[in-house]
Amino acid sequence: MVVTDPIADYLTRLRNAISAKHKVVVIPASNVKKEMTKILMDKGYILNYKFEDDNKQGKIKIALKYNPTTKESAIQNLKRVSRPGLRQYSSVSDMPRVLNGLGIAIVSTSKGLITDKEARKENIGGEVLCYVH
Predict the structure, then answer these.
(1) pLDDT of the residue at 3
(2) For residue 54, with 0-12 CB atoms within 10 Å meaning exposed, 13-18 middle and 19 or more buried, which class applies?
(3) Secondary structure class of 25 (helix, strand, coil)
(4) Adjacency order of strands within the sheet including 59-64
């Protein structure tokens, strides 16, 4: 199956696994998806991850994080911003704030994938890939 927008596919698989209350989700790997997974782990949105090599594309196994008392996911909302048909770029001065700083925006910059806060700190703009909160 050919996927025209792999990042949207990644976010949709995460969204579907969360709504079905799965503990683990398996996603086909790519370098961008690996970096997005590392950011989600660093910011505390997922429990753990593992990259598996199957001599083809590879897979990413992601352990989802839920609140033990309320059974709510750490990820409340995933929104794709920039897409193949309409790229969304942002300068440092126009960098979006997700929920007034409570969420993150993942931005593709010349220094790789970073969050909106890191982009403001390093004073660089880029393509806003998605919002997570």
Answers:
(1) 81
(2) exposed
(3) strand
(4) 24-28, 59-64, 46-52
Q: What is the pLDDT of residue 16?
A: 98
Q: What is the pLDDT of residue 117?
A: 96
Number of Cβ within 10 Å of residue 58's Cβ equals 15
Mark the ranges of the chain whose per-residue pLDDT is less than 50: none
Backbone angles phi, psi at 106, to 5 degrees: -90, 125
Tokens of 30: 């790519």
As to burial, measured by CB atoms within 10 angstroms (0-12 exposed, 13-18 middle, 19+ buried), residue 57 is exposed
For residue 60, CA distances in Å to 38, 94, 111, 122 come to: 11, 32, 23, 29
Secondary structure E strands in the chain:
24-28, 46-52, 59-64, 78-80, 89-90, 104-109, 112-115, 126-132
CB neighbours of residue 9 within 10 Å = 16
Q: To 10 degrees, the CA torsion angle through 77, 64, 97, 94?
A: -100
User: Contact 125/74 with Cβ under 8 angstroms?
Assistant: no
